[in-house]
What does this fold into?
Amino acid sequence: MVYIHVKRIGGKKYYTLRISVRDGENVITKDLCSLGSNLSKIKIEDLEKKYRKEVRGSYDTIKKFLDTNYYYEKSKNKKLKKDESFSHEQIINIDAILVHFNTKYKKLDKQTQTDFFNKFLINFAVNSTSIEGNTITLKEADRLINEDIIPKNRTLREVNDLTNTKKTVEFFNETNPEITLELVEKIHDMLLENIDERKGYRNHEIKILGQLFKPSPARYVKADVKLLLDWLEKNKGKMHPLALVTFFHHKFENVHPFSDGNGRTGRVLMNYILFSLNYPPFVINRRFRKEYLDSMNKADASLKKGLIKISIDDYRSLLDFIYSQFKISYWDNFLV
It folds into this structure.
């Protein structure tokens, strides 16, 4: 495997084109060439000409590194506003995504944008439902959505879970509605169509096994969701958008306004809020389910101060997690 290796010397980054080869139980690495400290002039076509055999199998990986680095360098040279929720390095990487999103992705023709978004949508639907136990694979989901081929040995509930997610996200794209109590309820009901008959806000008490937090008492559920929506509206423009949805998502899940489907509803809402703020949507990958839940649990300490109170220290782990998923997801799904 060939890849671009990064090392820091005196606080400065230096790059090499490195090859890694397995020899029995050992892995041998060797630098093919130095790429210097500035990748802006490095073109994959030049590397391919010189190291055709080595680069061929890793072409996409190397190209992705060079392309993302190009936008990172553009953002690194800008005077970006500081934010207590994210480090300077994180702010640069988020801005690099926005630069690509606005100057590259949004400049694509409508059909190409649609193709990219549909691939993202399948990815999002599979991962969001998988976090809750759905076993449909990415390949099966692609055939289900694009070819109407129902996967074998999967339940109708799992199929509906996936197709409902797709329809719900498409509903947002087509209607761009205002986020209200009624809309949150509608999102939930669309996601749980033909899965759970318990529609609407819950009117009974619940306990979440294995979780320390206590969901809102049934009589306060709607009031707490309304409180969160008012808080959301008040803080748009005041908080960094990615921090805003991180806080909102955690607090929404702690209210736990529905009998089932709270996580799926919360992740759809997170992306819709980002969409309304001209940010790209993202996927929380099922492979990081444990890290996701652990970071959500760590943030529970903030709730001792009140539902809409914010303690950055309590949210540090969750902010870092959401940032990492946002970054990975964007370049995996929308890099042109």
Observations:
- Residues 2-77 form one domain.
- The radius of gyration is 22 Å.
- The chain has 13 helices and three strands.
- The chain has a mean pLDDT of 94.
